[in-house]
Design goal:
The protein is an alpha/beta fold and 295 residues long. It has a single domain, classed as Ureohydrolase domain (Arginase, Chain A). It has ten helices and eight strands. An eight-stranded parallel beta sheet has the order 2-1-3-8-7-4-5-6, sandwiched between helices. Strand 4, helix 5 and strand 5 form a beta-alpha-beta unit. Helix 1 packs across helix 10 and helix 8 runs parallel beside helix 9. This is Arginase. Keywords: Arginine metabolism, Hydrolase, Manganese, Metal-binding. It catalyses: L-arginine + H2O = urea + L-ornithine.
Length: 295
C-alpha cells in the first residue's frame, strides 16, 4: 500500500433524523485535514465528494427504513470508490455523513480481502427494519453489513464478514433488538462500563485480538463515541462517553497493533458544534489511528 491517503466525502444525512451531518465532510476539511495528514509523512489526495441530492428532494418512503433506496445508491457508489482506491494502492479515508455510509465503506474494503471491523460507537447500529424504534438506517449499518434480518436478501450490503471478526468498543446506548443480536450472533462487544473497569488500552487490545490477523482492519469511528463535553457536534449525543485522552490512547493502540486498511469518520454535525471542535477532534483521532506519535 502506498503512502497516499485518498479522502472520499460522503455528505449524506439520509440515515439520520437530525439534519446537519451532511455538512460533516466540509467541516472536517475546513478544520485542516489535509495539513494534518501531511505532517504524518503521507500524501493526502482529496478525491472530492460523492454527488448526493439533498434529503429534502427525496421521499422517506417506508417508515421502518427511511430513504433506503437513496442510501443504497450512495453506498453502492461509495463502495466502488473505496475499492478503486485500494486497487490503486491508496488507503481510503471516508468522511461522513451519517453512519449509514459505513455500509459502502466496508463493502468496498472487503472486495478481494478478508478484513476485521473495529466499530467505535456509543450505539450498536445493529437494528433491522423489524427491530428499529426510529426507522433511521444509521442505526442499522452494522446489521446490514452482517446480513441480519431483511438485509440478508440485499446484495448491495453483502460483505461476507463473519460476526467473529467484528468488535464493538465503548457502546453505552443499546436497543432491545441490538442486545438480542449481540447475544444471538456472538458479536464481541465492550461496553463503556468495561472501559471504566479495565481501562481503554486493555479493552482495545482485546478488541484488536478479535479483528486483526487478516488483510487489515476497517476502523469505523462515530464521533458520538466520545463524551459530548469533548465532541458536542454529533448527530445523536449520549452522555458518559470516552474522554479526549482515552480516545487518543485507543486509536494509538490501533496504529501500533493493526494494519488500518480503511477508515471512516462519521456523524460530525457542524450545526450542533462549538467552533468546529468536533471536526478538529475527528482529525486528531484520524491522525492517531494513522500513526501520529508524540516522540
Amino acid at each position: 500500500m502506498s503512502d497516499t491517503i485518498r479522502i472520499l466525502g460522503a455528505p449524506t444525512d439520509y440515515g439520520a433524523s437530525r439534519r446537519g451531518v451532511d455538512m460533516g465532510p466540509s467541516a472536517i476539511r475546513y478544520a485542516g485535514l489535509a495539513a494534518t495528514l501531511s505532517t504524518l509523512g503521507v500524501d493526502p489526495l482529496d478525491a472530492g465528494d460523492l454527488s448526493v441530492p439533498p434529503v429534502e428532494a427525496d421521499d422517506p418512503g417506508r417508515a421502518d427504513a427511511k430513504y433506503l433506496p437513496a442510501i443504497e445508491s450512495v453506498c453502492t457508489e461509495l463502495a466502488d470508490r473505496v475499492a478503486d482506491a485500494l486497487a490503486d494502492g491508496d488507503r481510503p479515508l471516508v468522511l461522513g455523513g451519517d453512519h449509514s455510509v459505513a455500509i459502502g465503506s466496508v463493502v468496498g474494503s472487503t472486495r478481494d480481502a478478508d478484513i476485521g471491523v473495529l466499530w467505535f460507537d456509543a450505539h450498536g447500529d445493529l437494528n433491522t427494519p423489524a427491530t428499529t424504534p426510529s426507522g433511521n438506517v444509521h442505526g442499522m449499518a452494522l446489521a446490514a453489513l452482517l446480513g441480519h434480518g431483511e438485509f440478508a436478501s440485499m446484495s448491495w450490503t453483502g460483505t461476507g464478514i463473519d460476526p467473529e471478526n467484528v468488535a464493538l468498543v465503548g457502546v453505552r446506548d443499546l436497543d432491545p433488538g441490538e442486545r438480542e443480536a449481540i447475544r444471538d450472533h456472538g458479536i464481541t462487544t465492550f461496553s463503556i462500563s468495561e472501559i471504566d473497569r479495565r481501562g481503554v488500552t486493555s479493552v482495545v487490545e482485546d478488541a484488536l485480538d478479535v479483528v486483526t490477523g487478516r488483510d487489515g482492519v476497517h476502523v469505523s469511528l462515530d464521533l458520538d463515541w466520545i463524551d459530548p463535553t469533548e465532541a458536542p457536534g454529533v448527530g445523536t449525543p449520549v452522555r458518559g462517553g470516552v474522554t479526549y485522552r482515552e480516545a487518543h490512547a485507543a486509536l494509538e493502540r490501533v496504529a501500533d497493533e493493526a494494519t488500518v486498511r480503511s477508515l471512516e469518520l462519521v456523524e460530525v454535525n457542524p450545526i450542533l458544534d462549538d467552533h468546529n471542535r468536533t471536526a478538529e477532534l475527528a482529525i486528531e483521532l484520524a491522525a492517531s489511528a494513522l500513526g501520529k506519535q508524540i516522540l
